[in-house]
Design a protein that fits this description.
Blueprint (H helix, E strand, L loop, with lengths): L13 E5 L18 H4 L2 H4 L2 H6 L1 H16 L5 H12 L3 E5 L5 H4 L5 E3 L2 E8 L5 E3 L18 E5 L8 H13 L2 E5 L11 H7 L3 E6 L10 E4 L2 H16 L3
Parallel strand pairs: 1-2, 1-7, 2-3, 7-8, 8-9
Antiparallel strand pairs: 4-5, 4-6
Helix pairs in contact: 5-9, 7-8
């Protein structure tokens, strides 16, 4: 288990980083796996500022379809386990690459959303953010009260992540004693750099995936569906992490 930081009273700092795989068993398509979104659509055709500038209606039709798909899904046991960890561990940080909102629906309260949210729209002129959970969307493409186009409030390829969010995630990774990496292909940066930051600080990195990734050579890989394996791992390690 994690190194002590000297004082005996120190309880381990635990960070959980999730990707699309944590929502797979809820029925939300992943991006790169079998049946993944990027298998059906080309990321550069839909998840870039250029794609939106070229055809905002097409991009919004894709996001409206994704919102409808997610709205029909429920959080799974992995999301619920993460929410329970947050409620009992004194030093816990959840960082997600997901935009589906299932962590929040499972009860997670403090979520560092690296890539934004399907459930927020942003005015392309003023930057104003508007929560919106209409499924389907009333208008496609939606417009702001000022008349300008609204865009999905997500981070597209080639766009920088919200500074405060990635900085908080980076600090948490640097301070982590234990990092659980759940359901991510560890391909997209800067999110994929977070486990490397934790490893450099000699943290214990445990990966939950149905197949190995580039991170697996440096992590403890727990093979199997997250909704099954994460609750089992938490039950086996809860006391250790609580310093019991
Ligand atoms: C940035 C939009 C600074 C929201 C997403 C060249 C030019 C420009 C940039 C780059 C470049 N080279 C690299 C970059 C950086 C680029 C990048 O990393 N590209 C990759 C593809 C190489 N990153 C960026 O552009 C980021 N911004 O760097 O800004 C900058 C700016 C300009 C120039 C340089 C730098 C922005 C990244 C965010 C992009 N937005 N989506 C949306 O519509 O969703 S990325 C997309 O991938 C999603 O957000 C998703 O979160 C993310 C990661 O995917 P995963 O979550 O890992 O999902 P995936 O399907 O890949 O994997 C699922 C995993 O789960 C698999 O391993 C599978 O085995 C597993 N699994 C499946 N089922 C289960 C399971 N595990 C457990 N249980 C199961 N049941």
């Amino acid at each position: 288990m994690p190194r002590s930081r000297g004082d005996q009273g120190h309880l381990p700092a635990v960070v959980v980083l999730t990707g699309a795989g944590v929502s797979a068993e809820s029925g939300v398509p992943t991006f790169r796996g079998a049946g993944g979104l990027w298998r059906t659509y080309r990321a550069e055709d839909l998840a870039t500022p250029e794609a939106f500038a070229r055809d905002p209606r097409l991009v919004w039709e894709w996001y409206d379809w994704r919102r409808q798909t997610v709205a029909a899904c429920e959080p799974n046991a992995a999301h619920r386990t993460v929410a329970e960890m947050e409620s009992v561990l004194p030093d816990f940080t959840l960082v997600t690459q997901n935009v589906d909102g299932l962590h929040e629906r499972a009860g997670s309260r403090n979520v560092l959303r690296l890539h934004g949210s399907l459930w927020s729209l942003r005015c392309t002129r003023e930057g104003l953010r508007v929560p919106n959970d209409d499924v389907p969307l009333a208008d496609i493409p939606p417009r702001c009260a000022c008349g300008a186009l609204m865009r999905p409030d997500v981070v597209w390829f080639g766009e920088t992540l919200p500074g405060s969010v990635i900085e908080a995630a980076w600090r948490a990774a640097e301070a982590a004693d234990v990092m659980l990496v759940v359901g991510t292909s560890s391909i997209v940066y800067p999110a994929a750099a977070l486990p490397v930051v934790a490893l450099r600080r000699r943290a214990r990195v445990v990966e939950f995936n149905i197949e190995p990734t580039d991170l697996s050579a440096y992590s403890e890989l727990v093979l199997g569906p997250a909704a099954e394996m994460l609750p089992v791992w938490w039950a086996a390690h809860r006391d250790e992490l609580l310093g019991a």
